């Protein structure tokens, strides 16, 4: 039995990033950025009394005469081709509505999934009626952003063997801008678990399964994940949360380094603030030494 | 209340983990997540505490006022609990959303503290005036296991509370005027270290877990909340959720809850003593992490 109550004054409060000589200026909402004359108003700004002011808390970015403020923390803004983890929230006419941590729910059209068995045909009335047997409310999927609608909502597709319904595992939610965009968002870590780093900040951790049915909507509920895999999954989960607490980019190398650094702790020790700081700090040192 | 939804596969994963005594975050069934406590953070209250349990953030503030005692209990003071679920915690608390949970929490806190809290300590002039304590609980973030977090924070705030000293009384016919000391440090502490804390045990599969996360609360069939004093006495028991319990299981859960409660009380007490000893030039952090 493990109960620890610490005092807030005893907590380590260091930042893992080294203080730079010229830190970026952070604007708060309503703060004046500059006079409007000669500049164009971009995202995150408004004009008031002849000057440009910020509508979000963030840093200024300029492209020629366009002034924008990019927020420090925001909901997910999708781009075509992003890998996302999504949770089905409702079923409507010929489509699923899914939660992807964006301002609006995304849609997954019945025509943008692969039917079980890889059948290729027009989707008729029967398919529409059996939609719930493929995906029902609460199910998690991995998918790709297919297109962006005018109102900013996204349309997803799962027309590849990479994507599909997710089975047993753990979902971790982090800020979406902490996920580093890379060629591959599906990783088999050497420790025997797979992670899917969704661009929307949802990270799926599951045991590596080589003989998985590629296009199936069936999930094996009888299968028991063995304790070894379970420990590694929990370790990855805690390590990812530690990295996200210290606002470090999350990608395969950072997770791998953090995992290696975490070996001196037991999995439940990784929940403590000291262990989180230690791991984040050591990981940053290793990443810097590698020049990343 | 929860906006978290889980599918069958995730539930199965959590249930199997609990059976193996290895939960999703690596804890065993009896472990608590690390807690963080900060005392005395509301300067204009008589006692206050902030407690953070993973993502649950609770602020408790105690204020005292002079009131007249009830005619049926002329020698007793009064205590009132009020819980406010801020809509910042979860959008489900918006409007009247958190009212039910708030009422349940404040009622159960009152029930749990009732048999232990000695109200006669709050008496000033029997039948004429007494202290009335207002215990205000604010839930700022909701990350599961609210009952334990709220009770720990409430106990810490009550331990932190001190009553102003009364320097004189003037009788004016029937009325008695009380003169309270002008010095804000001329106070006497309210003895509250024997108050109980709440221990939630959530039944998942065939076993039960302490300190459930939101996900585990969803998987569980039901939850038993036991109120335990530092000596291990149980003052109140509450069942949450739709599940039912066999008498044997219920007994076992209450026994185990009382065991955990002793350790939880001990941990809180040690932290409070540590806080007392480090009282000089203490820096306050509040919500700046």
From TrEMBL, chain A:
Residue intervals of the S1 motif domain: 79-159
Q: Where in the cell is it found?
A: Nucleus
Q: Which UniProt keywords apply?
A: Exosome, Nucleus, RNA-binding, rRNA processing
Task: List GO BP terms, alphabetically.
Answer: CUT catabolic process; exonucleolytic trimming to generate mature 3'-end of 5.8S rRNA from tricistronic rRNA transcript (SSU-rRNA, 5.8S rRNA, LSU-rRNA); nuclear polyadenylation-dependent rRNA catabolic process; poly(A)-dependent snoRNA 3'-end processing; regulation of gene expression; TRAMP-dependent tRNA surveillance pathway; U4 snRNA 3'-end processing
Gene Ontology CC annotation, any one: nuclear exosome (RNase complex)
UniProt KW rRNA processing keyword: yes
Molecular function GO terms recorded: RNA binding
**PANTHER family given for it?**
EXOSOME COMPLEX COMPONENT RRP4, PNAS-3 RELATED
What family, per the record?
A: Belongs to the RRP4 family.
Q: What is this protein called?
A: S1 motif domain-containing protein
From TrEMBL, chain B:
Cite the Exoribonuclease phosphorolytic domain residue spans from the record. 32-164, 194-255
Q: Where in the cell is it found?
A: Cytoplasm; Nucleus, Nucleolus
Where does this protein chiefly localize? Answer: cytoplasm
| Keywords associated with the record | Cytoplasm, Exosome
Q: Name one GO biological process term.
A: nuclear polyadenylation-dependent rRNA catabolic process
Q: May I have one GO cellular component term?
A: nucleolus
Which CDD domains did the record assign?
Answer: RNase_PH_RRP42
| SUPFAM superfamilies registered for this protein in UniProt | Ribonuclease PH domain 2-like, Ribosomal protein S5 domain 2-like
The protein's GO terms of the molecular function aspect are: mRNA 3'-UTR AU-rich region binding
Q: Which Gene3D superfamilies does the entry link to?
A: GHMP Kinase, N-terminal domain
Q: Which residues form a coiled coil?
A: none
Q: Which family does it belong to?
A: Belongs to the RNase PH family.
What name is this protein filed under? Ribosomal RNA-processing protein 42
């Amino acid at each position: 039995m493990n109960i620890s109550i610490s005092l807030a004054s005893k907590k380590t409060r260091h930042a893992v990033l080294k203080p730079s000589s010229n830190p970026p200026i952070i604007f708060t909402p309503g703060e004046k950025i500059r006079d409007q004359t000669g500049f164009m108003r971009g995202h995150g700004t408004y004009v008031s009394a002849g000057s440009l002011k910020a509508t979000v808390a963030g840093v200024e970015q300029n492209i020629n005469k366009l002034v924008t403020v990019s927020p420090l923390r925001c909901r997910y803004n999708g781009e075509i081709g992003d890998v996302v983890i999504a949770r089905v929230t409702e079923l409507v006419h010929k489509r699923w509505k899914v939660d992807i941590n964006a301002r609006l729910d995304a849609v997954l059209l019945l025509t943008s999934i692969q039917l079980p068995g890889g059948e290729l045909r027009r989707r008729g009335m029967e398919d529409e009626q059996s939609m719930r047997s493929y995906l029902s409310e609460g199910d998690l999927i991995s998918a790709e952003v297919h297109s962006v609608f005018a109102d900013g909502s996204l349309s997803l597709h799962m027309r590849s063997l990479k994507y599909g319904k997710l089975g047993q595992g753990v979902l971790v939610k982090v800020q979406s801008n902490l996920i580093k965009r890379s060629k591959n968002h599906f990783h088999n870590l050497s420790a025997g678990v797979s992670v899917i780093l969704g661009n929307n900040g949802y990270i799926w951790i599951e045991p590596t399964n080589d003989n998985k049915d590629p296009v199936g909507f069936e999930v094996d509920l009888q299968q028991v994940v063995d304790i070894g895999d379970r420990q590694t999954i929990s370790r990855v989960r805690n390590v990812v949360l530690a990295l996200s607490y210290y606002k470090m980019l999350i990608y395969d190398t950072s997770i791998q380094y953090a995992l290696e650094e975490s070996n001196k702790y037991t999995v439940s020790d990784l929940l403590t603030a000291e262990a989180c700081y230690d791991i984040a700090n050591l990981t940053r040192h290793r990443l810097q030494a590698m020049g990343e | 209340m929860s906006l978290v939804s889980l599918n069958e596969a995730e539930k199965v994963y959590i249930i199997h983990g609990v059976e193996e005594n290895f939960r999703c975050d690596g804890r065993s069934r009896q472990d608590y997540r690390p807690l963080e406590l900060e005392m005395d953070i509301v300067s204009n209250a008589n006692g206050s505490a902030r407690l953070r349990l993973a993502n649950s953030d609770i602020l408790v503030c105690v204020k005292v006022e002079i009131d007249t005692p009830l005619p049926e209990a002329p020698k007793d003071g009064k205590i009132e609990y009020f819980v406010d679920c801020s809509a910042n915690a979860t959008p489900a608390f918006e409007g009247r959303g958190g009212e039910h949970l708030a009422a349940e929490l404040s009622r159960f806190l009152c029930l749990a503290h009732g048999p232990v809290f000695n109200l006669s300590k709050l008496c000033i002039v029997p039948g004429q005036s007494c202290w009335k304590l207002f215990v205000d609980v604010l839930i700022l973030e909701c990350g599961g296991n609210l009952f334990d977090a709220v009770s720990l924070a409430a106990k810490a705030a009550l331990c932190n509370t001190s009553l102003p000293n009364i320097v004189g009384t003037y009788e004016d016919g029937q009325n008695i005027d009380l003169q309270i000391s002008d010095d804000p440090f001329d106070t006497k502490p309210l003895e509250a270290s024997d108050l109980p804390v709440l221990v939630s045990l959530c039944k998942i599969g065939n076993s039960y877990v302490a300190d459930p996360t939101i996900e585990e609360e969803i998987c569980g069939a039901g939850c038993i909340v036991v109120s335990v004093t530092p000596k291990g006495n149980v003052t109140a028991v509450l069942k949450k959720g739709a599940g039912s319990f066999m008498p044997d299981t219920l007994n076992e859960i209450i026994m185990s809850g009382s065991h955990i409660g002793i350790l939880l009380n001990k941990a809180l007490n040690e932290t409070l003593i540590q806080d007392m000893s480090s009282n000089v030039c203490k820096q306050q952090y509040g919500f700046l992490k």
